[in-house]
């Protein structure tokens, strides 16, 4: 008899559902109390509950795959540093080690053991993006991790209920935004505390003194569900490639995806070595987005937890760009990580083409600005603000790709009003970019046309970390490529897609984010859909005539 047999089936299922509700409340508390705009407005976070062995049982729906799936490993690292038998009620652990967290130092992770009547019964974890922890303003200039701001190993920030004020002072001293950064740390701590409180209430309600039976049931049921889906797929190995813009030289990623009876494995042998630039990817982040891409195709209706993640595995040569080793610069690891789903889809397209979208924008096209709040400028009165904006999703076999969406990151686009209220920037224009979605039987989602400018007669710094400028999202099966991204000044001058730019007074920044690739011959697109696109301003009259044959 296993532990999963000692609780009746109805109770197991009800408590499983309750755990999902608890971690969603946990995430909502984090989002509603966060100072970071990318967390508060866009949901760049993760929250989850783990059993006493460090296995993830449930994750919040609110959050990003990169944060969630790497968090699934992070709790194990905490336990390795602080064994369970040494943990006490009121302990809270913190770190932002890229190799033991979410891949770069801007994401702070907090882990909290949960006790019931003095016995450790579960662990709550969360992480979120902190706007500033020191380091470079230019998001592509760092050449090792030590240049990338405050680096926290796994340490106690709360010891048996007593705050580590010395550590908090260190955090406060290493950020340009001390109030906001310290506020975000408290938000992370509080979010786990809420989860622990709700779990204790649930366990008392159902008369549980441990979660072993529930956790075994969740993990075994989920693993078996994923393996059943994998059993329906053709078996074999498929190879894929993807070329990214990089920084002054392209990056050619390679993968081999193998489907077997025991799971799906992705091998990144053939991908390039680490670069001196900071878009190297720790293996935890590579696993996070690889696993997510596989899940989109194979396990989209199965809850995400230790069991459902277990049949999805990866390997990559040590020292490669997707298995970067410390002290590699990793600040912009999302520039590679967010593109990995397209690489995985390019493999899976050969095995199950009816399930796979065309290529996506992938990376976010966020607006990042730093400048003075007054004229003449004062050193002690500057803003640092970021707004998530996005491009188009690739067309799916059954429908058009979504426009201006954060797939695969899952983060939402932020409101320009918040961006404006926290800075002296005004956004003059933010609309769909007409004709940017790749034409096809199903069309790629549209990118955006955004224009912004300082209200002051002062220059400001605009920080660009963009992809899909030289290598736009590809269409397939006769579908056309999405439009390439572009970054310009209002006067027409082209700006580099990666780097910090000083924007002169009175000048506008023009952001044209990419569109997703199309699927199928555009001439076979339903006429009613073409007319609807024309009516809604998604395509021009010229495209309707020349491409779609209207």
Strand order of the largest sheet: 2-1-5-4-3-6-7
Q: What portion of residues belong to β-strands? A: 15-25%
Gyration radius over CA: 24 Å
- How would you describe the shape? globular
The level of helicity is 25-40%
Number of DSSP E strands: 19
Give structural notes.
By secondary structure, the chain is α+β, with helices and mostly antiparallel strands. It is 29% helix and 22% strand. It has 13 helices and 19 strands. The chain has helices at residues 9-33, 37-40, 65-81, 165-173, 178-205, 212-231, 283-298, 306-309, 334-337, 340-351, 416-421, 527-535, 541-546; strands at residues 45-51, 56-59, 92-95, 107-116, 119-129, 155-159, 162-163, 236-244, 251-260, 263-267, 312-315, 367-372, 382-387, 425-432, 448-454, 460-465, 486-489, 498-503, 508-512. The strands form four sheets. It has a seven-stranded antiparallel beta sheet, with helices on both faces. A hairpin with a 2-residue loop joins strand 6 (155-159) and strand 7 (162-163). Helix 1 packs across helix 6. 53% of the residues are buried. The model has no long low-confidence stretch (mean pLDDT 96).
Short description:
The chain has 550 residues and is α+β, with helices and mostly antiparallel strands. The chain is 29% helix and 22% strand. The chain has 13 helices and 19 strands.
What order do the helices and strands come in, and which of them pair?
Layout: H1 9-33, H2 37-40, E1 45-51, E2 56-59, H3 65-81, E3 92-95, E4 107-116, E5 119-129, E6 155-159, E7 162-163, H4 165-173, H5 178-205, H6 212-231, E8 236-244, E9 251-260, E10 263-267, H7 283-298, H8 306-309, E11 312-315, H9 334-337, H10 340-351, E12 367-372, E13 382-387, H11 416-421, E14 425-432, E15 448-454, E16 460-465, E17 486-489, E18 498-503, E19 508-512, H12 527-535, H13 541-546
Parallel strand pairs: 10-11
Antiparallel strand pairs: 1-2, 1-5, 3-4, 3-6, 4-5, 6-7, 8-9, 9-10, 12-13, 12-16, 14-15, 15-19, 16-18, 17-19
Helix pairs in contact: 1-5, 1-6, 3-7, 4-5, 7-10
């Amino acid at each position: 008899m296993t532990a999963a047999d000692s609780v009746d089936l109805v109770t197991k299922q009800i408590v499983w559902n309750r755990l999902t509700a608890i971690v969603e409340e946990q995430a909502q508390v984090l989002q509603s109390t966060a100072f970071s705009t990318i967390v508060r407005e866009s949901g760049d976070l993760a929250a989850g509950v783990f059993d006493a062995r460090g296995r993830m049982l449930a994750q919040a729906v609110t959050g990003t795959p990169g944060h969630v799936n790497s968090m699934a490993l992070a709790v194990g690292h905490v336990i390795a540093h602080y064994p369970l038998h040494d943990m006490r009620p009121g302990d809270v652990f913190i770190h932002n080690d890229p190799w033991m967290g979410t891949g770069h130092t801007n994401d702070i992770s907090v882990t909290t053991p949960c006790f019931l009547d003095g016995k450790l019964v579960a662990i709550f974890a969360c992480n979120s993006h902190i706007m500033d922890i020191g380091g470079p303003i230019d998001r592509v200039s760092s050449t090792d991790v030590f240049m990338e701001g405050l680096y926290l190993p796994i340490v106690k920030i709360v010891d048996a209920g007593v705050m580590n004020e010395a550590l908090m002072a260190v955090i406060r001293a290493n950020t340009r935004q001390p109030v906001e950064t310290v506020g975000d740390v408290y938000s992370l701590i509080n979010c786990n505390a809420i989860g622990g409180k709700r779990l204790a209430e649930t366990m008392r309600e159902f008369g549980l003194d441990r979660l072993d039976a529930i956790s075994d049931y969740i993990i075994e049921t989920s693993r078996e569900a994923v393996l059943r889906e994998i059993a329906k797929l053709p078996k074999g190995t498929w190879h894929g490639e993807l070329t990214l813009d990089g920084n002054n030289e392209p990056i050619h990623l390679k993968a081999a995806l193998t489907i077997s009876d025991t799971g799906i494995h992705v091998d990144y042998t053939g991908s390039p070595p680490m670069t001196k630039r900071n878009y190297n990817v720790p293996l935890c982040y590579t696993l996070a987005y690889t696993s997510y891409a596989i899940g989109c195709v194979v396990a989209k209706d199965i809850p995400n937890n230790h069991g459902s993640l277990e049949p999805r595995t990866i390997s990559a040569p040590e020292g490669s760009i997707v298995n970067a080793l410390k002290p590699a610069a990793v600040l912009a690891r999302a520039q590679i990580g967010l593109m990995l789903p397209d690489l995985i889809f390019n493999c899976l397209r050969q095995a199950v083409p009816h399930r796979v979208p065309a290529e996506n924008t992938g990376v976010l096209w966020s607006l990042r600005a730093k400048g003075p709040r007054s004229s003449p400028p004062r050193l002690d009165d500057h803003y640092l603000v970021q707004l998530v904006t996005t491009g188009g999703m690739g067309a799916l076999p059954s429908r058009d790709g979504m426009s201006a969406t954060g797939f695969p990151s899952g983060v939402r686009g932020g409101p320009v009003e918040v961006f404006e209220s926290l800075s002296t920037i005004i956004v003059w224009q933010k609309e769909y970019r007409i004709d940017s979605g790749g034409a096809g039987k199903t069309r790629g989602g549209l990118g955006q046309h955004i224009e912004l400018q300082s209200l002051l007669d002062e220059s400001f710094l605009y920080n660009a970390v963009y992809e899909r400028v030289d290598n736009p999202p590809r269409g397939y099966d006769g579908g056309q490529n999405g439009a390439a991204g572009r970054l310009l000044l209002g006067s027409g001058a082209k700006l580099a897609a990666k780097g910090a730019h000083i924007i002169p007074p009175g000048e506008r920044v023009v952001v044209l984010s990419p569109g997703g690739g199309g699927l199928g011959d555009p001439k076979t697109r339903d006429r009613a859909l073409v007319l609807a696109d024309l009516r809604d301003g998604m395509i021009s009259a010229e495209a309707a005539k020349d491409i779609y044959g209207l």
